[in-house]
Amino acid sequence: MSLVGSLEDLGLGDILQIITLSRKSGSLNLRSEEGEGRVIFRDGLVCGGRVKGQTPDLRGLVVGADVLSDAEFESVRGDAAELGITLSQALSEKVTSDRFEVLRRECVERAVLAMFAWDTGEFSFEVGDDGPEDEFEVMLDAGINAQYLAMEGTRRTDEQVLEPEAASDELASFADVAKEIAADETDPRPADATDAGSLASVERVDGDGERDGTADEVVEALEAALVPEAPPRPPGDPAHRPPVVVLDADLPVLEWVKGALEGTFRRIHIFQRAELAVERLRQYLARGQAPLVLVSPSLPLDRSHGWRDVEDLVARMKKQSPRSRVLWLGPREASAPADGSVPRANLQEIGRSPGPEAKLAHDVRAGLLSALGEDPTTAGPMPEEAPAESPRLAAVIARLEDPETRGEVLNAVLEFAAEHFERVALFAVRGGEAQGLAGIGLEKAGGPDDVTLRGVKLGTSKARWLARAIDSRGAARGSAEGGGDQELAAHLGEAIAPEAWLAPVISRDEVVAVLYGDNLPGCQPLPATDELEAATVRAGLVLDEALAQRTRSAR
């Protein structure tokens, strides 16, 4: 088991519980702007923990606590080497065993709990990696329950976040006293008396019932004296907006939503599984926070968790957190039981810019701000409309997206390229090698048929034409450079094109194919290729969606 991710998506408390429940042994490493830390697990229990530059080693632990002097520590260290035992074992014999264990436990607890303040950064967990013994000297004989540390760390974090409320509790006790004073008509103090320790004068209720001052006014005066008025929240500050929890089965859509909301909201958590999203919601509720929640209406559910359908899931979320706004991520004829809906990008739209995706992202931001009662215009200016698709581009996109012709995606792109160039060829890319798949018009300059082309293989780093398209992840054009390009040209015909055009087809963030075009034998200037490039992008997205559907069907 290997666990890698961001602390913004999975907090330290969540990580500890995952490792505890799986009863794994290994090393958890955290890196944040606040520092670097490490936690060692044995069978799911925390046996070591340190923060780089802050947590003492065994010498600093016992000498710093005045348990041993430097000279005594060195003597124990020498005894350990002579007896062939660990330094910890030797110290346990020299220092009272219980005392030594308490010192080590407190040291490890302090280190782990300090890491709970790190809400941004990266983490990685490697099974069975305890690290060098001399690097991690403070280890426990009996591990600490990680769930206890998770609860304690969350509690301390919440106390820091809710620190202003501590003043409110103190204020409440002052307010109770103030009400008693205001209600006590036998108070011997004159009406204009002022407590030496208070900035608010306490006025009495006269015997005829006419109010010169009330208990509420006293409380308000005490509030003004004890708690300064909080500065107004700056408009549009993401730090003051609630976290967002997004639930959708398609990872590309989740990443798109996260990208659309970054900069508008500080914390965005994305989940493909409902049970994980619900657990994150509960954690925020325990802290007194009510997140915004986006749920895809077509989300598949594991009914073993007790949800009848996605509507039941949303209804339970609303019941559990009445203050949370829950919105559908995608069109929905009836919003209930959610509070409304925001647009969801189709897989085919993701990656097109400028285009419908930019407008959809704007609409998602505006929809969430409206749900919070904020001005939706702070979501940013409306992006410019993309130019209308030409009839021939619209036709090829319709063919790409037609479920009945989805197996012909690359053929459709190849045929569309043949409308732009005299000669075109398609190469599959895998393992640093390009292999011919199919071509159109290659014979015009002495090129091979499809059977012969499929026998062509060439290293992608060898031919600059191929390397430029793959490395830039975008269309490239230019003349042949070096022997690799000349070898590629020789595979395609008897002449070398003065200029060629190549573009990658990208699926699942990998270049899976490269499209080649030239205008041999006439050598006419290469045409504009904006529409062709848009088609190659759309082809990759359609391949993504087809793969995602096969993955869901296999579950």
Report what the structure shows.
- The chain is built from 18 helices and 17 strands.
- Strand 2 and strand 3 form a beta hairpin.
- Helix 9 packs across helix 12.
- It is globular.
- About 13% of the residues have low confidence.
A few lines on this structure:
By secondary structure, the protein is of the alpha+beta class. It has 18 helices and 17 strands. The relative contact order is 0.06.
Structural class: alpha+beta
Q: CATH fold name of the largest domain, please?
A: Beta-Lactamase
Radius of gyration: 33 Å
Shape: globular
In the CATH scheme, the class of the largest domain would be Alpha Beta
Q: How many structurally independent domains? A: 4
Percent helix: 40-55%
The CATH architecture name of the largest domain reads 2-Layer Sandwich
Strand proportion? 15-25%
What is the arithmetic mean of pLDDT?
Answer: 78
Q: Compute the separation of the termini in Å.
A: 21 Å
> Strand order, biggest sheet?
1-5-2-3-4-6
Q: How would you characterize the largest beta sheet?
A: 6 strands, antiparallel
Count of individual helical segments: 18
Oligomeric state of shown chains:
single chain
Number of strands: 17
Provide the low-confidence segments as ranges: 161-233
